[in-house]
Structure prediction request, 275 residues.
Amino acid sequence: MAIHQNEERGPETQPAGRGTEPLTEQVEYRFPGRRVFVTGGARGIGRSIVEAFCRAGARVAFCDIDTVKGARTAAETGARFAEVDVCNGEALEDCIAELFEAWGDLDVIINNVGISRFSPLVETSVEEFDRILATNLRPAFITSRALARHRTAHPQANRYGRIINIASTRYLMSEPGSEGYAASKGGIRSLTHALALSLAPLHVTVNSIAPGWIEHANYEGLRPEDHAQHPSGRVGRPEDIARLCLFLCAEANDFIDGENITVDGGMTRKMIYVE
Prediction:
C-alpha cells in the first residue's frame, strides 16, 4: 500500500500571480548540520519538505513505504531513505534508533505521513478505521516519544528542537465518508498541543500545519474554477507547506509553540452558502 500525502491531490506550473516564485527564490533559510527526519518523504508534500531542507544544508533522512519513489527521492536529493511501514511501530522505532546511533540526536522531526480513505460510513470497517489512525496519528506519537526518551536519557547542551505535525483542514471541516481521516487529523491537532507542553523542558517546540487543497500530481490539469474558488486565486502546491516548515524551524522562531497554522488559500474562512 502506497503512503499518500495528506490533503494533496498531486507539477510545476500554475497560474500567474501570488506564490509563483520558485522555492529557492523565497526568503533563504539555512540549517547547516541540522539533523532532520521526515515521515512519508517520497512524494508530494513530504518530498518537497525533504528537498527544501536538503537545499538548506541539513542532513535529512526520511522513511516511506514506496521503495521506488523513495529511492528516487534519495538519489535526487542526497537524503537518507529507509523503507518503513509506519503502521509497524517497532519498525518506526528501529528507524529512529538507527538515526540516533548514526547522528547522535535529531533536531527536527516532521510527521508528514498520511493516507486518505473515504468510504460510506455503513461500509467502513473497524479495521479500516484503525488502519487510518495507525498511519496518520500514531506515528507522530511514536516519533515524539522517541525524541523525548533519547533527550531525557542523554542530557546535552542541545537547546534546539522542532517537531512539525502535518494535519489537514479536515480537522475542522468534513464531508460524508471521511470519519477516519477527519478523526486522525483532529487527533494530530490535539496531540500537537499536548506534546508542546510535554517537550517544553527539552527545548523542543511542537506545531502543526493544516494544508487545504495541495495539488502535486496534475497541476496543469486543474480547471480555472479550481483556482478561482480560492481567495488566494490558486490551488496550493507542496512548496507552500515546505516553506512554512522552514520558517517554523528557524532558530529564532522558538516563541511559536503548540499552534496549528492553516495553509489553504483562505478557503476555510470563506462563506460557502449558495446565493
Notes: The two ends are 42 Å apart (CA to CA). The chain has a mean pLDDT of 90. The chain has one domain: 23-269.
